[in-house]
Each structure stands twice: as structure tokens, then as C-alpha cells.
């Protein structure tokens, strides 16, 4: 693998933002990036540009703390290549890497083939001891973690987990435009407290409404929803209408249904299976 610094030379300036876990790094990441005119942030396995996730999957979805660390460091080749591909596409001139130690941010930079870190900012440089203690207490007692992107950007990735929008307002002095940003608060899988569930009836009502507007589906006979850690799986049995292209109609219905359910419920649909059990013949009004 060719290193990015070999592709772009040393044009990429790498900055690091370091602090112990739970002290508020992600909360303040965009403020630090803004002060340094940095548009790209690497945090917990995500590459973020201007409040938008452009590559990666959050390490906070990992089932264990060990897997979380490995993911955040980009140990797996496929995870590494996804970020490198985004670098080549967007050609960032500055990047801010978040980490819990100097060693961690250096390892991330090395694994991604980035130049050496130009400057490191520490959490104590931008937050008071009291603010860090408050952030740490919230992490320990409530299991919450802040990701530096707006809630709508990461909602699908974390559907089924607790999500809260958090607005930050910071005055930058008289006559200067204040800093205002929205973040997403999520509970990591391994520290999740409680469950977020949606009744199967809700899914069925959405599916029946969409089916009523689909020529190829006469009736939904059965709906079964299985909820997994990363989303829901839907099994459907239907009566199809005779004389239509059943394969095409069910394919289009499936795409539309997944999109609508994810938008209306914020639940991620990991799989959807549609089985045709009967055929309805409009002319005779009989089922075969």
C-alpha cells in the first residue's frame, strides 16, 4: 500500500486532539478544528467533513471495548482502505485526529499512512478540570458518548440506540460570530442501559399502507419482525395480484418499505424477506 504522504507529499497537515476517555474531546472537536481551520476529523473510526460522515463506521458500535479500540485504530485492512479511499477523493489539506493518548493518535496516523503529527492539542488546553470531571461523570453513570456530527447524520448508523441532539453555543467575544453546533449523543453497545423498541404493529401498519399503494400486492397475510443489536429483520407473507410482474413489484416495494421504515422509526432494517403465498385474480375475485 502506497502511503498517502507518498501520494500527496507532506501537503497534508496532521493535528491531534488528545485526552482521556470521557473527558469531552468529541464534544469540543469541532471547536478545536474550527480554531485551526481544519475541515476533516477522525474520531472513533469515522472520517467527518464539515458535520458530515464521509467514511467509516463508528467504533462505538463494536460489542466489546477491545474491538472498539481495534476499530478506532484502523487495524483491519478494509476499514483502513475505506478511509484512505476517501482521502484520495477529497484530498484534505488538514486533518484532526482524536485519541486518548499520544501513542494512539500516532498509531492512527501511521496505520493510515499519514505524515507525522504537526501539532497536538490536549483537552486540558481547552477545558477546565470541572468540565472534564462533569463529562467523565456523565460517561460513567449514563454511558453516553458524543460524536461530532449532527444527529440526522448518524441516526441511521445508530438506529435502535439512544440518540439525543446536543447544541453547543460558545461566545467568541464581542463583535465576533458565536460558535453554534449540534452533536449526537449515543450509548455505545457495550455500555447500553435499557432497550429502545418499536411495536411490531407499527411496522405492519406502515407496510400495509405502502402495500395499498402497490399494484402487485393485494394483501399482507403475515408480518414477523426480529430485532437484532444492529437493527431489525422483517419477514412478510403476501397475496400477490395476478397479471403483474411479481418479482419487479416486490423488489420495488421492498426498497420503498425499507426507506420509509428507517425514515419514520429511525430503526435500521438489516434484512427484509417477502414470500408470495397466494395469488389474487381480480376478474373472478377468487384466491388460487
Word description of this protein:
This protein has 288 residues and is α/β, with parallel strands linked by helices. It has 2 domains: 4-191, no CATH class; 200-287, Cation efflux protein, cytoplasmic domain (Alpha-Beta Plaits, 2-Layer Sandwich), CATH 3.30.70. Helix content is 36%, strand content 31%. It has a 6-stranded mixed beta sheet with strand order 4-3-2-5-1-6, sandwiched between helices. Strands 10-11-12-13 form a 4-stranded mixed beta sheet, with helices on both faces. Strands 7-9-8 form a 3-stranded antiparallel beta sheet. β8 and β9 form a beta hairpin. It is elongated. The termini are far apart. The model is unreliable at 150-156, 158-174 and 178-196 (pLDDT under 50).
Could you name the key traits of this structure?
288 residues, alpha/beta, 6-stranded mixed sheet, 10 helices, single chain, Alpha-Beta Plaits, 13 strands, 4-stranded mixed sheet, 31% strand
Give a summary of the structure in a few sentences.
With 288 residues, the protein is α/β, with parallel strands linked by helices.
Low-confidence stretches: 150-156, 158-174, 178-196
Arithmetic mean of pLDDT: 76
The order of strands across the largest sheet is 4-3-2-5-1-6
Q: How would you sum up the major sheet? A: 6 strands, mixed
Q: Helix segment count?
A: 10
Number of strands: 13
Secondary structure: elements and pairs:
Elements: H1 4-8, E1 13-18, H2 25-35, E2 40-43, E3 46-49, E4 52-56, H3 65-72, H4 77-90, E5 94-99, H5 102-111, E6 117-122, H6 123-126, H7 129-142, E7 145-147, H8 151-154, E8 163-170, E9 179-186, H9 200-212, E10 217-228, E11 231-241, H10 246-265, E12 269-281, E13 286-287
Parallel strand pairs: 1-5, 1-6, 2-5, 11-12
Antiparallel strand pairs: 2-3, 3-4, 7-9, 8-9, 10-11, 12-13
Helix pairs in contact: 9-10
Amino acid at each position: 500500500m502506497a502511503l498517502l504522504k507518498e501520494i500527496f507529499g507532506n501537503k497534508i497537515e496532521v493535528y491531534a486532539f488528545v485526552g482521556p476517555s470521557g473527558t469531552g474531546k468529541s464534544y469540543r472537536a469541532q471547536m478545536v478544528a474550527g480554531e485551526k481551520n481544519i475541515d476533516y476529523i477522525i474520531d472513533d473510526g469515522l472520517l467527518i467533513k464539515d458535520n458530515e460522515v464521509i467514511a467509516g463506521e463508528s467504533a462505538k458500535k463494536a460489542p466489546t471495548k477491545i474491538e472498539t479500540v481495534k476499530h478506532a485504530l484502523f487495524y483491519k485492512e478494509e476499514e483502513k482502505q475505506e478511509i484512505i479511499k476517501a482521502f484520495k477523493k477529497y484530498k484534505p489539506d488538514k486533518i484532526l485526529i482524536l485519541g486518548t493518548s499520544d501513542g494512539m493518535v500516532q498509531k492512527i496516523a501511521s496505520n493510515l499512512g499519514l505524515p507525522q503529527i504537526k501539532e497536538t492539542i490536549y483537552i486540558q488546553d481547552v477545558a477546565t478540570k470541572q468540565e472534564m470531571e462533569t463529562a467523565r461523570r456523565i460517561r460513567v453513570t449514563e454511558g453516553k458518548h458524543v460524536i461530532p456530527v449532527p444527529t440526522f447524520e448518524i441516526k441511521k448508523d445508530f438506529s435502535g440506540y439512544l440518540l439525543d441532539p446536543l447544541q453547543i453555543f460558545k461566545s467568541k467575544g464581542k463583535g465576533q460570530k458565536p460558535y453554534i453546533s449540534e452533536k449526537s449523543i449515543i450509548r455505545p453497545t457495550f455500555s447500553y442501559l435499557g432497550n429502545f423498541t418499536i411495536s411490531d404493529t407499527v411496522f405492519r401498519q406502515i407496510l400495509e399502507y405502502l402495500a395499498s399503494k402497490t399494484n402487485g400486492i393485494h394483501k399482507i397475510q403475515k408480518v414477523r419482525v426480529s430485532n437484532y443489536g444492529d437493527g431489525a429483520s422483517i419477514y412478510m407473507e403476501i397475496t400477490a395480484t395476478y397479471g403483474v410482474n411479481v418479482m419487479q413489484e416486490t423488489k420495488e416495494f421492498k426498497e420503498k418499505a425499507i426507506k420509509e421504515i428507517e425514515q419514520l422509526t429511525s430503526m435500521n432494517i438489516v434484512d427484509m424477506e417477502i414470500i408470495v403465498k397466494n395469488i389474487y385474480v381480480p376478474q373472478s375475485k377468487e384466491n388460487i
